Each structure stands twice: as structure tokens, then as C-alpha cells.
Amino acid sequence: MSIITWNDQLNVGIATVDQQHQKLVEILNQLDEAVALGYKHKKILQLVDELIDYTRYHFQEEEGLMLQPAYDAAMYQKHKSEHDEFIRKVVREREAAIDNPDAVSNELLDFLVAWIMDHILYSDKQMALALNRAPNVKDDELRKQQADIMHSNLYAALRESEKRFKELADQLPALIWITNNQHVPIFCNRFWVETFGLPKQKITMDNWHSAIHPADIELVKQAYQKASTEYCEQQIEYRLNRGERGTFWMLEKIVPRIRANGHIAGLMGFGMDISLQKQAESQLEILVAQRTQQLWEVNQHLEDEKNQQIALNQQLKEVQGHLVQSEKMASLGQLAAGVAHEINNPLGYIYSNLNTLKEYIQDLLNIVESGQRLADHLPADDPAVLEFKQLQKAADLDFMKGDIPELVEEAMEGATRAKKIVQDLRDFSRIDKQDKSPFDLEAGIDSTLNIVNNEIKYKAEVVKEYAGLKPFVCVGSQINQVILNLLVNAAQAIDEFGKIHIRTGMEEDRVWFEVEDSGKGIPEEIRGKIFDPFFTTKPVGKGTGLGLSLSYKIIQDHQGEVDLQSTVGKGTKFRVYLPNI
């Protein structure tokens, strides 16, 4: 493409000078093309060097012509100064371009074009007129001729540029179009015409848009409108109906054409077929969706397995804890049963012997009273009477007659209490008995209190508030175990000495019992954990964390409920509800 198109209007009338001018223009066009097409830096510098060398040669030729005697010396000196300044300017730019390739820029090319055109059409025109002794032409007229020729040359260059642009545009497999400020297409390349199937002479905005998918027409119009009103680039994707060839996806970039005065001259557009890309994206989305679904299903399966594993581990942990506690309680039950059995036998004959001893003592006391009566009928100085009275006085018989019955009664009462404890131990020891049967809850509480009396009596005063409940069906030994755990925990929650209230009652079809202590209470942050297996707030070695867990499991197995109320620093109350069957 030529930056300056040579024609006869550029001739000054001196053959050698015109030939040299044509050569300069040729070098300048080559330099412009090299910069525009991105030639290697070395090639561009070679063209600049060629321009400098040839210009020097040309200037020498011109200066030789101007040395004729008839030529005006002042004009010569002025002309020569212009030559020298031009050479200095281009040499400086060339030196700058050695280290900075961008120095050979559009600004330098604009300078070269302007200078050469001014040099040919004005300075050298004046020189040629003077050398040819032609009639003088006024400076204004010469400048006007210069402007006309330049405009003509630029128009020709523009036409050539436009022709080449259209040729290039027609070769590209893309939509390329230009509209005027009324949005009427004034240029559409061959690919556009083939794609839309519209002859160039029949293209209008209406039939242009008719080929666009109805769902996308508004999007396209909005993009064109925004580019026209806001003077900004737009990029859109839309579908294009191509008749029998189907629907195509287009990616289009719209650019406003702005005049030098800032007014809109129309739009330019460049569109590419991205149907294959869209198809690939669609397939990729399907594959991604499928893969995502597969991953989700796998993750869900893994999550389910993880949750099942956690649940199984938790169940295993609970079962293990319950087994440990059950074994512990069973061992305790066996020990209690063994102790009760071993104590019960000697306790039986102790109790029996005490009854017999009571009868024997009464008989002895009767004999002593008979001896007293006999002594009263004998002389006072009778040796036997004196010995009897001496023995009576030494043994303090009167005191013994009153104290011995009391001692026997106390011993029998102690034996009775021991017998009751043994019976409670035997009742409590039936841990492995799982059959449901009528159970007296309040009697069970009393039995359990006897068992844990040593644990409680130094820590709290027990206050019983019974409602007189009738027996109900349950596994009594398990309920005793719940009562035991609650009572022991209540006692251990009291630091010094306090109170433990034990209450019973009935609500509709449920019976309930509660254990309330005046201990330190349960903090809010751990209330949700107290029924977890192995959770304990007691020091190491003081608790296993299984008591409440096992108690909760027993209550659940009975379809019962546990209600907890606790205030830190004031105490805790556990109420257990059980079905009244």
C-alpha cells in the first residue's frame, strides 16, 4: 500500500529532479509498509539509511542546479538550510531508533510525508520556476496548488487503501460490515453476503435483523444502540439463522466510527463463527454436569458411609460402655448377692439365738426374784442370806434387771436392721433379671437409699416426699440402678453438706420420680454432653462417665423421658418419667 501515490501532478518540470523525487517517494512508501507490517528492526533501519543517503544525493543535485549565476542567492541559502535541517532531523531519529525500535513511529512517517510533499510542491516548485525562467507565481497561488495536489493524492491513496481493505475483507471468513450514522449498511464483505444470503443492493436494517434469532434481536439492537450513544466498543454473542444450513453462533465486536469533530459517523463490526466453540462448550458443560453429578453421588455415598461409620462407632462405643457398666453392675450384684447370702446365714441364727437368749434371761430373772423372796423369809444373819445379799450388791442386780432387757431389745433391733439391709442387697443384686414385673417404686428408692446410705449420710440430709404410688410394670432392678446413679451423682455434686430431695408423683398415664440436690449445678455448655458415654467432669479415677449414659439408655428402653433443670451454684434436678403400665 502506498502512503503517497506518484502522478504527473507531482512533477516540477525538471526531469532529473522529478526522477529523484519519484525515487524518494518510493523509498518512503517502502518504509511505511515495513513499519505497518512489522518488518525486522534491521530492515527498517536499512530503509531509513537508504532514505538519508538518497536524500543527500538528491539535495546535492538540487544545490548544484541552484548554483547557476542567474539563481537568487538568498533563495539558494534558504533552500540549502531546509536541506540541512531535514538531514539533521532524520539522522537524530535514526540514532534514537538504534536502541528504541519504536522511535520509527507514525510521527516520524507523518513528518517525512509532510516534509517531502512540502519540499516537492512548494520549495522545489519555486526552484524549478526560477531555473526555467517561468513567469512568477504568487505564493498564495502556489500554496493553493500544493493543497489541491495533496488532497488529490491523499484521496487516491485513500481509494487505494479502501480497495485493498475491501479485497482483504472479502478474503476473511468473518462478518465485516460498516454502517453510516443512520445505521444503514454501506459495506458488507463477501462472507457477510454469503452468510445472510442478501444482495448488497438490497441490504437494509430490517432484513439484516431478520436473519438474527428472534430471541437475540433485542440483545443485538441494544449493543448497536449503546455503541452509537456511548461511543464505546461492544462485544456480543448471538445466533444467526442460515436457512437450510441451520443456526450458527456468532461472536461480534462493534466499534463506533467517530469523526474528527467528535460526531458519530456510523458503526463497524467484526463477527466470527463460534458454533464449534459453543458446541464444544455445550458438550463440556454436559460432561462437567455429568462428572459433577458422579462426584456428588460418590461424595454422597462416602458421606453416607462416613455417617454410618460414625453411627456404628457411636453405637459400638455406647454398647461397649453399657457392657462395661452392665458387667460392673452384674459383678456388683453377684458380690452383693454373695455377701447377702454369707451374712444372712449367721444373721439368722444370731437373730434366733437372741430370741432364745431373751427367754433364758427372763427365766433367770424369774429365778432371781424367787431367790429374793426366799431370802426375805430367812433370818437376816443367815450365812446364805448374807452371801446372797453380798452377791446381789456386787452385781448391782437392780440395775441389771432393768438394763438386760433393753440390751437384748437393742441387739434384736440391730439384727432386724441388718436383716433388712441384707434383703435390700438381695433385691438390688438381681441386675441380670430383665423380665418386667410389678415394681414398687417408692420401696425401690428406700432399698437403694439403704445401699448408698454410707455415700450420702456424710454429704446431705435426705428429704423424701412420696405420693404413695401403686406398683407399675417395669424392670425393677434397672430402675433401681437409675435411682442409684442419680443419688450418687447428687451426693458427689455437694461439696460440703446439703440436702437431697426425693419426690414421686403421677401425671396422666405416667409416673415420675425426681432427685434434686443443692450442689454446684451443671454449666450450660456441657449439659448436652452429660448423657454421652465416657463423658465425666470427675477427676481421673473417680468416674467412668457411664452412669448417666446407662441410666439414659435404661429410661429410653422403658419408653420414658428425662427432664433436667440446673442452676450453677444452686443445684440440679433430674425428673424421670416412666409409662404407668
UniProtKB/TrEMBL annotation:
The chain positions of domain Histidine kinase read 338-581
| Keywords, comma-separated and alphabetical | Iron, Metal-binding, Phosphoprotein
UniProt keyword Transmembrane, yes or no: no
| Pfam families xrefs | HATPase_c, Hemerythrin, PAS_3
The Enzyme Commission number assigned here is 2.7.13.3
Describe the location of the PAC domain by residue ranges: 234-286
| Entry annotated with the keyword Magnesium | no
The record, for CDD domains, names: Hemerythrin (cd12107), HisKA (cd00082), PAS (cd00130)
User: Reaction(s) catalyzed by this protein?
Assistant: ATP + protein L-histidine = ADP + protein N-phospho-L-histidine
Which residue ranges does the record assign to the PAS domain?
A: 161-231
Q: What SUPFAM superfamilies does this protein's entry cite?
A: ATPase domain of HSP90 chaperone/DNA topoisomerase II/histidine kinase, Hemerythrin-like, Homodimeric domain of signal transducing histidine kinase, PYP-like sensor domain (PAS domain)
InterPro entries per the UniProt record, alphabetical: HATPase_C_sf, HATPase_dom, Hemerythrin-like, Hemerythrin-like_sf, Hemerythrin_metal-bd, His_kinase_dom, HisK_dim/P_dom, HisK_dim/P_sf
* Group of enzyme by EC: transferase
Member of which family?
Answer: Belongs to the hemerythrin family.
Supply the PANTHER family for this chain: HISTIDINE KINASE (PTHR43065:SF50), SENSOR HISTIDINE KINASE (PTHR43065)
Q: Which NCBIfam families match?
A: bact_hemeryth (NF033749), hemeryth_dom (TIGR02481), sensory_box (TIGR00229)
Record-given protein name = histidine kinase
Q: Where does this protein come from, organism-wise?
A: Methylomonas subterranea
Give the source lineage, highest ranks first.
Bacteria, Pseudomonadati, Pseudomonadota, Gammaproteobacteria, Methylococcales
